[in-house]
Amino acid sequence: MDVRMVICGLGRVGQAFMGLLIQKEKDLQKRYGLNLKATAAVDIGGAAISPEGLPLEDLLSHLKKGGQVENMARYGKKGFSGKEALSSGLADLLVEATPTNIKDGEPGMTHIRTAFSNGLHVVTAAKGPLVLRYSELKASAEKAKVRLMISAATAAALPTLDVGLSCLAGTEVLAAEGILNGTTNYILTRMYEDGCPYGEALAEAQKMGVAEPDPSLDVEGRDTANKILLIANEVFQAGLFLRDISVEGITRVTPEDIERAKKERKVIKLIGKVEKKNGKIVASVSPMALPLDHPLACVRGTEKAISYLTDTMDRVTVSGGKSNPQGAAAAILKDIIQIYKG
Q: Which residues pair with 282 in a beta bridge?
């Protein structure tokens, strides 16, 4: 089966996805009968276009040398937008990998809406549109009879939604707790295991590339809030908004807090939580002191994990998965396979 794709966003995730397509081309054809072709690759200045499929190795090489997609020989088209690509009959599916924008969701919001209006499936790594307009976008996908897949937006390679929606089918999911941000978990691990002060651990994480130069989205708990919101709305059908989630990050966790937890045989982790409480779905993000026998207590470094509590299967926990662009790219590819072969 030929699947034609428009890839919007050629940053680290978009480029990692193209690299994965190159690496997995024969395997995808042999195992799943899928021939995935990128007919358009779009970035801020324009696009590269080929109805027969772009030569991804050449495009990736061009980008890694510092070239702009719109200047690629033979295929480049300056000023050609994602909206134009998605409206031109070039594709069956949108891969949305533009940067997350929580203010207005753009340009991903326009890309996703345009894809739906043209009958295209959507696989997205961008959280912004989902956080701001989840219910609207799900309803639009249903009306257009296409799929909206969001694994890469909910902790990348960690299969948070796959477990909650597929592996726990037939259960009542009572609660979910997750370590959903690798940066904060790395900082808290260093503070707990090595007595490293918060500021020093953060600076180390930035030097290693684990934390961004501006780490506020991570350390203030907002990245975890975005992810737990999507889990709440997908798995629990909660219909929540960001304003419904109480959020506290790790900036006020002190060495004294860490030592107190140690004495109580506990460990502090930044936990995104959603649970059924008094007939309502309640979600929160905060540092929590977990008993050492809690399944999330042993999640170290940049690793992430999700733990579900159910009525019939009890507790089910999954940890690991790459916290990097390749992990997000792998989640995008998994979602595409599920659309066509699931």
A: 275
| H or E stretch at 173 | strand 173-179
Question: Residue 270 in contact with residue 185, Cβ under 8 Å?
Answer: yes
Buried b (16+ CB within 10 A) or exposed e, 18-55: bbbbeebeeebeeeeebebbbbbbbbeebbbbbeeebb
φ/ψ of 9, rounded to 5, equals 105, 110
CATH number where 68 lies: 3.40.50.720
Q: How far apart are CA 100 and CA 105, in angstroms?
A: 7
Active site residues: 227
Q: What is the DSSP letter of 1?
A: -
3-state secondary structure (DSSP) of residue 222: helix
**Cα gap 203→40, rounded to integer Å:** 39
- Half-sphere CA count of 262, side-chain side, radius 13 A: 13
- pLDDT tens digits in sequence order for the chain, 342 residues long: 999 999 999 999 999 999 999 999 999 999 999 999 999 999 999 999 999 999 999 999 999 999 999 999 999 999 999 999 999 999 999 999 999 888 999 999 999 999 999 999 999 999 999 999 999 999 999 999 999 999 999 988 899 999 999 999 999 999 999 999 999 999 999 999 999 999 999 999 998 888 888 899 999 999 999 999 999 999 999 999 999 999 999 999 999 999 999 999 999 999 999 999 888 999 999 999 999 999 999 999 999 999 999 999 999 999 987 777 899 999 999 999 999 986
Is pTM beyond 0.90 here? yes
Q: Are 21 and 38 in contact (CB under 8 A)?
A: yes
**Residue recorded with tokens 């940067």:** 99
Q: Looking at the structure, do residues 168 and 315 belong to the same domain, yes or no?
A: yes
Instruction: Clarify whether residues 127 and 171 are in a common domain.
Output: no
On whether both 93 and 136 belong to a single domain, the answer is yes
Range of the domain at 287: 160-319
Q: Which value, in Å, is the radius of gyration of the alpha carbons in the chain? A: 21
